[in-house]
């Protein structure tokens, strides 16, 4: 396998991983900021208050974007990885 093909495939895989992780991480960031602001305003320092809302928000977003994630990974695998394996 040519070195440039390897690096191009790696670049595409990292880009796809970034695009797949972005919605979940963005929601975790927003939920964390919201809960942190709420805790700062009310002086409530409960540890589960920071964990549970972020977990619920991330699970909801993951469930909503699961189809897109699967299609993206399947398309990358069948369109890029399988032809590379077949050509070797």
Task: Characterise this structure.
It comes from Celeribacter indicus. One of its GO terms (biological process) is protein secretion. It is a multi-pass membrane protein. It is found in: Cell membrane. With 88 residues, this protein is mainly α. 92% of the residues lie in helices and 0% in strands. The chain has helices at 3-42, 47-87. The mean pLDDT is 93.
Query: How many structural domains does the protein architecture include?
Result: 1
Q: Terminal Cα separation, in Å?
A: 7 Å
Which term fits the overall shape?
A: elongated
Main β-sheet, in a few words? none
Number of strands: 0
Structural class: mainly alpha
Count of helices? 2
Low-confidence stretches: none
Q: What gyration radius follows from the Cα positions, in whole Å?
A: 19 Å
Mean pLDDT: 93
Beta percentage is under 5%
List SSEs in N-to-C order.
HH
Report the helical percentage: over 70%
């Amino acid at each position: 396998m040519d070195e440039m093909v390897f690096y191009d495939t790696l670049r595409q895989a990292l880009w796809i991983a970034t695009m797949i992780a972005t919605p979940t991480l963005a929601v975790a960031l927003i939920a964390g900021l919201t809960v942190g602001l709420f805790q700062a305003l009310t002086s409530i320092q409960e540890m589960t208050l920071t964990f549970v809302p972020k977990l619920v928000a991330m699970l909801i977003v993951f469930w909503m974007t699961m189809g897109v994630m699967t299609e993206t990974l399947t398309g990358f695998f069948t369109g890029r990885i399988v032809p590379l394996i077949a050509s070797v």
